[in-house]
Write a structure and sequence with these properties.
The complex is a heterodimer of chains A (303) and B (398).
Chain A lengths: L4 H9 L3 H27 L14 E3 L4 E3 L4 H8 L1 H34 L2 H12 L6 H12 L4 H9 L12 H25 L3 H9 L4 H12 L1 H16 L3 H6 L7 H11 L3 H31 L1
Helix pairs in contact in A: 2-14, 3-14, 4-8, 4-11, 8-11, 9-10, 11-14, 13-14
Chain B lengths: L13 H12 L13 E12 L2 E12 L3 E6 L5 H9 L6 E6 L2 E2 L10 E4 L11 H11 L4 H14 L15 H13 L5 E5 L7 H18 L2 E6 L2 H7 L2 E6 L2 E6 L1 H6 L4 H6 L4 E10 L4 E5 L4 E5 L11 E6 L5 E3 L9 E11 L3 E8 L4 E7 L13 E5 L6 E3 L2
Parallel strand pairs in B: 3-8, 3-9, 6-7, 7-8
Antiparallel strand pairs in B: 1-2, 1-4, 4-5, 9-10, 11-12, 11-14, 12-13, 14-20, 15-19, 16-17, 16-19, 17-18
Helix pairs in contact in B: 3-4, 3-5, 4-5, 5-6
Chain lengths: 303, 398
């Protein structure tokens, strides 16, 4: 009535699209969707003195199964201005840092893309080379440079340009500087990839039609590198919002960023539900730009 | 104004003199009524070197107002480099380029009244068709209403009225070419440059567009220099053709000139196909000359004298395949024929090309127009004779 088992097995195990998708799907389910579900669950529970330190959502009684969902953590986040300020501070710092990365990274990427071919690989390596040392060490190094008796202040004092050291360490400036320094390659690489693809004959055509170099840059190069700008900005902005190490090491009392607040809720207060709610809100905030980017990309592809 | 001169090169080198001689006879251009005697552009002894390699070598040319001029040559002949110098993307190492009497050799591209249609069209992908055409006009800071009017006029000229809002990637190859042409004409340049204008089109569309582009150019009345490696395209579109090789110009003339009176062997072989016979001049008089050709196995007689120096007796005799005749009976006389066998026949529809192996082992191409549907023709391995009229052959040197 049906095909022999060997044939059915063959059909089942024949390499098909489903199998190719299955591997990343399994990966994402195990390491993204499942943890996400757990965090979501914790964020909807209430803090309790227990191990783990939160109440269960689903309670199985003798005859009843009750589901207790608590939104109190989310309401608490909105009622306390600290959290709103932390979100706002994170977005602000990430935005300024992204903008600075773009302003520094674009000329660098442009110069790299215009450089002679045999130089491009060297320049590319130079951009990536710092990432080969530990991130933590590089941020520590900035402490040595920025502190009151650090490299910059000592040099300026020695030159007699200032009488007392400028306070740079433990300020928002130091945090932004650290983020720009750490994430600059993520801005440069997509921009470089985009700019090398730019057809040189378009620039010649613009020049032929009477456009000078700067105008050609504004009217042709810049609009055509929009994809690179958006990709680079996303790659810097999204991790910068949740950044913890840099504000912890370089930031001061005035630096309120969500990554640091989250850490404190989790490890100092041991309030897992509130920390989880913080993470969920942060994710929601970041989803907006990601969704916008995705829509832009799919529209570009369709065109 | 200066006297319209073909070549300002005082060199006595034969390669510079030959084009000049050809030039004199090129008054029979098919569209000569449109072409004016006035000089629009003069290229004076221009050279360009890239790291010691000479791309353009001492080129001098005069372009008349209103003509379509083709630079024809293989890859690496320097034709594109010359065009890029005219556009301003490259600076000549030596020499001058004069547009309407003014030296523009050092003028940047954005200040030249010259526009170019690129081989890849180079349409701005992020702009609509209308924005592409308006780009050059906006650089001139023309009033908005005038730009709109000019864009509409250009779209009408290239029959693309309904496509103003489209983006380049939504157009077909032929439509893109029309837009590129409209964009390069929008600023009403005094000179239009076309870089391999049909290079990105398929064969069928190519022949269609060749005639249409010429029609548009004639309607606008713009002077045009085009670069191509396709001799058919150059001959279809241009009033005059310059054959380039190794960075210098071998011959300048009308399509008829370069085809019927090639300056040397290289031109004869590059423009169309040709049968060549090596020989030595044995008699040279005012009204005829005789050439002894062991390759033909017989003497060749030509109806005009060629005034050769005594020490340059070795020449090539060139006969075009369509002027080479085929017969089954032995031709009369002692000149201009050979016996052979048909080795191959290429049926091309409109015409058939016969490959005849002569008794001397020389392969001769003969093309016959297929004027009737079926006719008695020699077949494979038939014994035939090839011959030609004494007016058909041309004497060439290397």
């Amino acid at each position: 009535m049906s095909a022999p088992i060997s044939q059915r097995l063959q059909r089942w195990f024949r390499p098909r699209r489903g199998w190719v998708i299955a591997v990343p799907l399994l990966w994402l389910t195990l390491f993204f969707l499942l943890p996400f579900g757990i965090v979501l669950k914790i964020s909807l529970s209430e803090a309790a003195i227990a191990i783990p330190p939160y109440s269960a959502i689903v309670n199985v009684g003798a005859e009843t199964v009750s589901l207790v969902v608590s939104f109190s953590n989310y309401l608490f986040l909105m009622s306390d201005s600290l959290y709103v300020a932390a979100y706002w501070g994170s977005l602000k710092i990430a935005f300024v840092a992204t903008l600075a990365c773009l302003l520094i990274g674009y000329p660098m990427a442009y110069a790299m893309a215009r450089a002679p071919a045999h130089w491009q690989l060297v320049l590319l390596l130079l951009v990536m080379l710092p990432s080969w040392t530990s991130f933590l060490i590089r941020v520590y190094a900035w402490m040595g440079i920025l502190s009151n008796n650090g490299l910059i202040n000592n040099t300026l004092l020695w030159l007699g340009l200032i009488d007392s050291p400028i306070r740079m360490m433990n300020t928002n400036f130091a945090v932004i500087l650290g983020i720009v320094y750490a994430y600059l390659p993520f801005m440069i690489l997509p921009l470089y990839a985009n700019l090398t693809r730019l057809d040189g004959s378009l620039l010649e055509a613009a020049s032929d039609l009477g456009s000078r170099s700067f105008n050609t840059f504004l009217k042709v190069t810049l609009p055509l590198s929009k994809g690179g700008i958006i990709a680079g900005s996303m790659l810097v902005f999204i991790p910068a919002v949740g950044e913890y190490v840099i504000p912890e090491l370089l930031g001061g009392p005035n630096t309120v960023m969500i990554g640091k607040v989250l850490w404190e809720e989790f490890f100092n207060n041991r309030d897992w539900p509130v920390a989880s709610a913080l993470a969920m809100v942060m994710l929601a905030l970041l989803l907006i730009p990601i969704a916008l980017f995705h829509r832009y990309q799919s529209r570009e592809l369709k065109e | 104004m200066t006297q319209p001169m073909t070549l300002t090169n005082p060199s006595t080198d034969i390669r510079h003199q030959l084009p000049a001689e050809q030039e004199m006879s090129s008054t029979t251009g098919k569209k000569s009524s449109r072409v004016q005697k006035e000089t629009l552009m003069e290229i004076r002894r221009v050279s360009k070197r890239f790291d010691e390699a000479l791309a353009v070598d001492d080129v001098s040319l005069t372009i008349r107002r209103g003509e379509i001029f083709a630079l024809l040559g293989g890859s690496g002949s320097g034709k594109s480099t010359l065009l890029r110098m005219l556009a301003g993307f490259e600076k000549p190492c030596e020499g001058q380029i004069l547009l309407e009497g003014k030296d523009i050799s050092r003028t940047p591209p954005y200040e030249r009244a010259i526009n170019m249609m690129f081989q890849s069209y180079a349409l701005f992908p992020h702009m609509t068709v209308a924005e592409n055409i308006a780009f050059g006009l906006k650089q001139d800071k023309l009033p908005k209403a005038e730009i709109r009017e000019r864009v509409a006029e250009m779209l009408k000229l290239v029959h693309m009225e309904g496509f103003a809002k489209r983006k380049p990637h939504q157009l077909s190859g032929g439509q893109r070419q029309r837009v590129a042409l409209a964009r390069s004409l929008a600023k009403r340049p005094s000179l239009l440059l076309l870089d391999e204008p049909m290079g990105a089109l398929d064969k069928k569309l190519r022949t269609e567009m060749q005639l249409e582009v010429v029609e548009i150019l004639e309607r606008v009345g713009v002077t045009c220099i085009m670069v191509t490696h396709d001799q058919e395209e150059a001959m279809t579109m241009a009033d005059r053709v310059a054959i380039m090789s190794d960075g210098w110009i071998v011959q300048v003339g009308s399509p008829v000139d370069v085809y019927e009176s090639p300056a040397n062997r290289m031109v004869a072989e590059f423009v169309g196909t040709v049968n060549l016979f090596a020989g030595e001049i044995v008699m040279d008089e005012a009204d005829c000359c005789v050439i002894d050709s062991p390759e033909l196995g017989r003497r060749i007689r030509i109806d005009h004298g060629i005034s050769t120096p005594a020490d340059e007796r070795g020449v090539w005799v060139a006969v075009r395949p369509e002027k080479t005749l085929l017969s089954l009976e032995q031709p009369k006389g002692d000149f201009n024929w050979a016996a052979g066998t048909v080795e191959d026949i290429a049926y091309l529809g409109g015409l058939s090309v016969y490959y005849v192996r002569t008794e001397q082992g020389h392969l001769v191409k003969v093309s016959l127009a297929n004027t009737t549907r079926r006719s008695e023709r020699p077949g494979w391995d038939d014994e035939v004779y090839i011959h030609w009229d004494e007016r058909s052959a041309v004497v060439l040197r290397d």
